[in-house]
Amino acid sequence: MRLGAAFGIAAVLLTTGCATAPAPAGAPTPAAAASAAAPRPAPQLTDVPSEAALMALLESGSEQDDNADAAVIVEDPEVNPASATHPGQAPDPAAVQQNDLWERIRRGFAMPDLEGDLVKNREQYYASRPDYVQRMTERASRYLFHIVEEVEYRGMPTELALLPFIESAFNPQAMSVAKASGMWQFIPSTGKHYDLTQNIFRDERRDVLASTRAALDYLGKLYGMFGDWHLALAAYNWGEGSVQRAIARNQRAGLPTDYASLRMPTETRYYVPKLQAIKNIVANPAAYGLALTPIENHPYFLTVAIQRDIDVDLAARLAELPMDEFRALNPQMNKPVILAAGTPQILLPYDNARRFIRNLSDHEGPLASWTAWVVPTTMKVADAAKRAGMSEDELRRINKIPPRMMVRAGSTLLVPRHPHKHTEDVSAEVADNAVMSLVPEGGSGRRVVVRAKGRETVAALARRVGVRAADLAQWNGVSPSARFAAGQRVVVYKPGKAKASTAVARTGKSSKSSKASTRTASKKKAAGTRTAAKGNGKSKSRVNVARN
Fold first, then answer.
1. Domains and CATH numbers, the chain
2. Is residue 36 within 8 Å of 220, Cβ to Cβ?
């Protein structure tokens, strides 16, 4: 009876690193890199799991559990975690014998080496900071196997698997002042272009699987454009248009058009040398007085499918994982609940995945204490809180609603899931398209956008435009102690009625000087001197990476 029920609820669940072919020798061709956009085929089960395997999953569960179908995991019998391959491909004997992921990465190096003083400078930088290198490699140990699998499957050089070292120090929660986010540092617009959902419930720029797919798609496209990995990397950092213009400028001047010969911003000039320095350290860490944290050549995590909404803290408890470790593998969550319609899977270490399934089967009571409510009409926060059955302070806190703002009709709020209402899981429509729109109280006021000055603090800009620093920080989703990048767009809500002539908040300048400023900014943009934006939309400002 129990076995039959188990087969009835089983869903295919795969190890994340269950498909790879050895990287081809030599540099990939543009055609191979261009194929990066093709989705990786998932291995298919050719036989049902053994009775013993299914019984082991259910040994602590009852025959009929309310949560028995909330999540399942079934191993692919064709997968050997120590030597994963695509179906129909023979295992690589070297990979079977070699359990060192660093060695696997070294074997896949295929980019031409870059030499010079900039590379030596970065080598010395990392060599003089062994604690920092250790923290980076320890963080990387969670994600590197998956990234190497994806890089090799696409026929790309394994140097690309090291790129998050210089993008974010392998911190999936990294955020730049220009709101580039995640291990691969996508800004919102480029993330949307590569199908990374960003709404109030989740931000897939931080999603380990989705952001890796998007980054490799983008890098494959850039290699197809330039036919050179160094130029592709420069474009990833600076933008393909900027690199194309730099190449055209050198061509007109009769100069070489390789990476080292182009005129580019300082950050981009150091970008490839930084990756080369990391490559050299990985190739021979002892030469730099460093030791790399060992990483075994098998998956760190499994993908666990979920079919019911579930609170984040409950999922971590059922998996018997500390919250910081759970969020390190599932950093895309913006709210304290995981919506199955939008996030149908979570990542868990191998042993914890099985504990999660077992504990979930035993769990009694609701899985989610939060749900989504689409506000039917524009209303004050106090009124919305009353209808949601929660305090105004809690509604503001959980939904990050600034003071003196009302919630516009059609906005989605996170509210408590009560036993007798809001009992259904959130729909896919809401999970994928939830938005929050606010309007100043009383209906009077206007939303304006101002440009920050170089390294301007929240407090300084707030004084300049005549609003409270705390409000300005909340409107823009930053810390009150943050600084803005030069030219960064900052949202400000000003009292009074909006006028066509006040598209930019008054800052003590006359209308004429504001127009002159706008014309100057436009000219600078046309001249290609606006260097804040990178190719994948990242700001040139430093990434705020947790370094502890």
1. 2-82+302-362 (no CATH), 109-296 (1.10.530.10), 370-424 (3.10.350.10), 443-526 (no CATH)
2. yes
